Amino acid sequence: MEKTINECFYQIQNGANIKQGDVEGGFPITRIETTANDKFNRDRMGYAGITDISKYEAYVLEDGDLLMSHINSVQYLGRTVLYVKQPDEIIIHGMNLLRLKARRNIINPAYARYCFYGHTFRCQIGNITKKSVNQASFAVKDLKQIKIEVPSLDVQNKVVVILDRVQKIIDMRNNELASLDDLIKARFVEMFGSIHESTKYPYIAVKDLTDVTSGGTPSRDKTEYWDNGTIPWVKTTELQNNVLIDVDEHITEAGLAGSSAKLVPVGTILVAMYGQGKTRGMTAYLGVEASTNQACACILPSDKVDSMFMWKYFELSYDKLRSLAQGAGQPNLNGNMIKNFQVLVPPIELQKEYVDFVNQINKSKVAVQKALEQTQTLFDSLMQKYFG
C-alpha cells in the first residue's frame, strides 16, 4: 500500500540553529557530517558549550529518530541515518538535517531508512530538488507529498531483519579490509619509523628523485581525436589507490599529438591534483602505457627509488597531501606541490622488502574484496526487490 511521507511521520523538522565549533564542551550537536558514509557518526559532531539542556529539550534526539540531509550536494540529498540511542546519551539535533519521527503503528523507522535509499525514492527526491551554485535542497512540504510503498509491519520487520543481516556481513568485510590496511601502515612504521617524521632515513623531494609531468584533454569537438582511439586516457575519478590497467576512455595518435596529453610509461605514479569529494590526493600505479588529463600529476619511474614503494608512500600520505591544497571554494594541489613533496627514502633493498610485504597483504585483500562485492551484489538485488 502506498502512503505519503506525511502519513508515515508525525514530525518532520529542521534542527536547532546553534553556532557550533569543533572543541568538545557541553552536549554534542548533529551537523551534516554526522551522517557521512550513511552512518550516525558520533565522532563527527559539533559543540557549543551547552550544559543547560532545558532550552533545547525539544531538539534532543530520541531512539528511532531519522536524520535526513535536505541541504547538500545533489548526490547526498535525502541521505538518511537511523539514530539508536545509547544509555544516558543526550545529543542535540542541529541545523541542516531534518528529523523525521515515525508513526510506529504505520512504519518501522529502520524500514523507512532502507526505503529512503531505494531507487524509487531517490528518483522522487530528484524531482523535488532545487539546485543552486554551491548546493542543492528540497522543501519539507514537497518531501511530505512523496509516496512510498508501506506493507504491513510484519513484512517491514522481516525486510529489516534480512537487510540488516546482509549489511552486517558487508560491514564485517569492510572492517577486514581496514584491518589489512592498518597492517600495511604498521609494517611501514616498524621498518622505517614515522611516515612523515622518521629519523631513520632521509626525506628527499620528488623533483630530486624523478621527473613530474601532467596531461591534457584533447578537444571533444574533434572526433578524430577520440573515435576508435587505442591510447588509454586516464581521468582523476579513476584514481582509487589502484593499479590501473583498464580505463573508460581512449584517444587516438592524432589526439595525443594535437593536445598537451602525453604518453607516460608503465610504473608511473598518478596523483589527483583536484577533483570532487575524496578525489584530490588519490593515487594510482600505471600498469599500462597511458595518457592522462591535466588534473593528474604523473610521477615518472626512476632508478633512484622503487616506483611501487614511492606509490605506497603517497598512498599513506593521502591526508598530508590533501592538507597542502590551496584555493577558495575547491582547494587544489598543483605540480610544484607534488615536485616538492618530501618522500622517505630508505635503502633500495628495504624498499623492495616492504613492497613484497604489501603485495602479500594485497593478495588477502583481493579475496576479501571479492567476497565483499558478492555480498554487495546480493544487498543491491534485495534493495531492488523490496524498493524498486
The CATH architecture of the largest domain would be Alpha-Beta Complex
Strand content: 15-25%
The succession of helices and strands, N to C, reads EHEEEEEHHEEHEHEEEEEHEEEEHHHEH
Radius of gyration: 25 Å
Indicate the CATH class of the largest domain. Alpha Beta
Distance between the termini: 14 Å
CATH topology of the largest domain: Adenine-n6-DNA-methyltransferase TaqI, Chain A, domain 2
Q: Could you give the order of strands across the largest sheet?
A: 11-18-15-16-13
CATH homologous superfamily of the largest domain - what is it? DNA methylase specificity domains
Number of domain modules: 3
Number of strands: 19
Enumerate how many helices there are, as a single number.
10
State mean pLDDT (0 to 100 scale).
95
The structure class reads alpha+beta
Stretches where pLDDT is under 50 for at least 5 consecutive residues are none
- Which geometry do the CA atoms define? globular
Helical content band: 25-40%
Largest sheet: 5 strands, mixed
